[in-house]
Amino acid sequence: MLRTAGRAFVLLLIMTLITGIAYPLVVTGLDQLIFPHQANGSLLYKDGKPVGSALIGQDFTAPGYFHGRPSAAGKTGYDATSSGGSNLGPTNKTLLAEAGQRAAEVRRENGLAANAPVPSDLITASASGLDPDITPAAARIQVARVAKARNLSVAKVQTLVNRYTERRQFGFLGEPRVNVLRLNLALDALTGR
Amino acid sequence: MKINDLAQMGFYLVILVVLAIPLGRYMAKVLQGEKTFLDKVMGPLEKLIYRVCGINPEEDMNWRQYAGALIVFNILGIVTLFILEMLQGHLPFNPEKLGAMRWDLALNTAVSFVTNTNWQAYSPESTMSYFTQMAGFTVHNFASAATGIAVAVALIRGLTRRQAQAIGNFWVDLTRSTLRILLPLSLLGALLLSSQGVIQTLSPYLTVHTLQGPSQTLALGPVASQEAIKLFGTNGGGFFNANSAHPFENPTPFSNLLEMLFILLIPVGLTFTFGHMVKDVRQGRVIFGAALILFILMLALTYGSEIAGNPLIGKIGITGASAMEGKEVRFGVANSALFATVTTATSCGAVNAMHDSLTPLGGLAPMLQMMLGEVVFGGVGAGLYSLLTFVILTVFIVGLMVGRTPEYLGKKIEGFEMKMAVLAVLIPSACILLGSALASILPAGTSSLANPGPHGLSEMLYAFASGSANNGSAFAGLNANTYFWNLSLALVMFVGRFGVILPLLAIAGSMAKKKIAPVSAGTFQTTGGLFSGLLSGVVLIVGALTFFPALALGPIVEQLLMWAGKAF
């Protein structure tokens, strides 16, 4: 028994050195060498300064920016140290009330009719609370608002949206999507902000 | 139903099987001590490890010695991990200066990672230091998976050896599984994931001035290394709270495909390994077939329910899928439903969508898979040994029906094996039902619920099913970081793990002693499609008889009420 415990302890110690220290450090070394951009968070820069990660959504509320999805991360949303979803169940009245309010807000912000259909991703909270993407439909209904706020033509903004619409990966994986931060950075570049 | 959704699911299944077949053959070689291409590197390392530990790799253990070594190793793991968590404030690689957690959470987490559950009652990015995640969690991601493989291979030896006492050497099985199966796969997997954007850094969290302002702090860490073994070991404990929904853990549709492959590769491969080790590949195929039938049924239920969606949201007036709450745009409905099925078919428990927000029947399928005992391929090793338990039950039931002596692989199934097999099925089921019953009558249980109505019962059922089946995914609205939930789930995870392993090792020991009778006209064939059908049927019937009443009160009634337009 005691001998077994001794063996177990030494083996656990060796396994800790191999799988708990050496393995993550080797992966860190290799990744920093081969994929430094990805390994450090796929950061995006503006004027030489990091403004965020291409993979992590940010909170946008100004009419001149495209807005991302509702976020349940942290108290105010898009808190990248507190990821997570709302965890509201499908028959929870809170979920239905929140979704209804968001739909009304999306319609108001974008000057839509009171019964106009709204893309579902704009009224539901994402799983991570940090979803960097919206659907192409969700970008489309914001085009007119953004164009007006920036004194741009609708066609010009729509062209930009089209350029930043990613198709399914390799043509069939996942869903088509628009990265909100990349799109907004491109908008700023276009209008020289 | 969309063609592209079906194409993605079909593609996934084909690639999975194509990769699992050679992996199954390779694992059989490793586990039987045959020559492989890693001998030159790992051979000397293993010898060194055995010498330092004072392990005689030639020693063949009987089932009691094997079980003893396994239990001692695992309990030691729980104790040391608990101490590590309590002391993390004084240890290196802790740039965010995270301190000790409350003892009940530390205990729950230690049991959780050692039992391959990876239930997380905490938000990792604000609780766990890089050191705890690496030297604690990553280590047990390897060790708990290797423990599962060891038990499976010991059971196979018991089924194939003639009139023997011994079922192998636990230390050797553990070491070889770790160094020759899990470690090389994880190294490769981590690099593949990083190519897609999974981060790997020891730098402190980064605060940036955002585009609109004011600022955002990005939680970072050595994620890719842990991500790979989290999936290959069917552990499932996220580096971040949002788990594989977090873009730093699962950034693209391709990384998502890789992650789903990593989860099922070893469990599916092991069904083929089984065929090689019993020297009859058809025996492996029949188990693979049974699990595949169940997998497709469960996937159809989850996907069907999610794509049909939530009519209460639909009423608001929307375009696009109505069940997008708790899902990510890049994955959409199809990849979220597929991931949820994959992660609960195995005992992984990683999630790329929040299961609490799935439609009621979409959440029922994951819950049911855990209740069935994680036999839809199941966890690494654990799935195979649990499936073999059901094989024994099936052989016995069918034997009774047609009046033949129950035997499997030429060995008679007798009273002792039946008692142990029934124990291995009853113990986890009792944990789930008694635990949920207790939680639903105690204020300490119900006060943690996040959702009212039948969904609340589902949250409790899901928690105990997840703990007992060592899955670790959650209806995460439940506030599980309380004394009641931490301690009751720690107990259930422990009993659900070792309450299955011990009876199975006992079966291994008793089967090893038996003679192998030659095949005769009286032998019931355990190969072919008929037996696959029988096996999956027995799994479903046992599960349905045990859990239908509880499921009827939770997800089933909620689905009916949702269709009727009722909210809570």
Automatic annotation (TrEMBL), chain A:
Keywords of this protein's UniProt record, alphabetized? ATP-binding, Cell membrane, Hydrolase, Ion transport, Membrane, Nucleotide-binding, Potassium, Potassium transport, Transmembrane, Transmembrane helix, Transport
Task: Specify the protein's topology with respect to the membrane.
Answer: Single-pass membrane protein
Where are the annotated coiled coils located? none
**What range does the record give for the signal peptide?**
none
Supply one GO molecular-function term: P-type potassium transmembrane transporter activity
Under InterPro entries, the record lists: KdpC
Q: What does this protein do?
A: Part of the high-affinity ATP-driven potassium transport (or Kdp) system, which catalyzes the hydrolysis of ATP coupled with the electrogenic transport of potassium into the cytoplasm. This subunit acts as a catalytic chaperone that increases the ATP-binding affinity of the ATP-hydrolyzing subunit KdpB by the formation of a transient KdpB/KdpC/ATP ternary complex.
- Family as reported in the entry's similarity comment: Belongs to the KdpC family.
Q: Which NCBIfam families match?
A: kdpC (TIGR00681), PRK00315.1 (NF001454)
* Subunit relationships: The system is composed of three essential subunits: KdpA, KdpB and KdpC.
Which protein, by its recorded name, is this?
A: Potassium-transporting ATPase KdpC subunit
Organism, as annotated: Acididesulfobacillus acetoxydans
From TrEMBL, chain B:
Q: Could you give one GO CC term from the UniProt record?
A: plasma membrane
Q: Determine if Transport is one of this entry's keywords.
A: yes
Q: What organism is this sequence from?
A: Acididesulfobacillus acetoxydans
What are the protein's GO molecular function terms? hydrolase activity; P-type potassium transmembrane transporter activity; potassium ion binding
Q: Which InterPro entries match?
A: KdpA (IPR004623)
According to the record's subunit comment, the protein's assembly and interactions are: The system is composed of three essential subunits: KdpA, KdpB and KdpC.
Q: What does this protein do?
A: Part of the high-affinity ATP-driven potassium transport (or Kdp) system, which catalyzes the hydrolysis of ATP coupled with the electrogenic transport of potassium into the cytoplasm. This subunit binds the extracellular potassium ions and delivers the ions to the membrane domain of KdpB through an intramembrane tunnel.
Official protein name in the record: Potassium-transporting ATPase potassium-binding subunit
Lineage here is: Bacteria, Bacillati, Bacillota, Clostridia, Eubacteriales
Q: Which residues cross the membrane?
A: 9-28, 66-84, 142-160, 181-199, 257-274, 286-304, 375-400, 421-442, 483-508, 529-553
Describe the family membership recorded for this protein in Swiss-Prot or TrEMBL: Belongs to the KdpA family.
| Alphabetical UniProt keywords | Cell membrane, Hydrolase, Ion transport, Membrane, Potassium, Potassium transport, Transmembrane, Transmembrane helix, Transport
Can you say where in the cell this protein is located? Cell membrane
What topology does the record note for this protein and the membrane? Multi-pass membrane protein
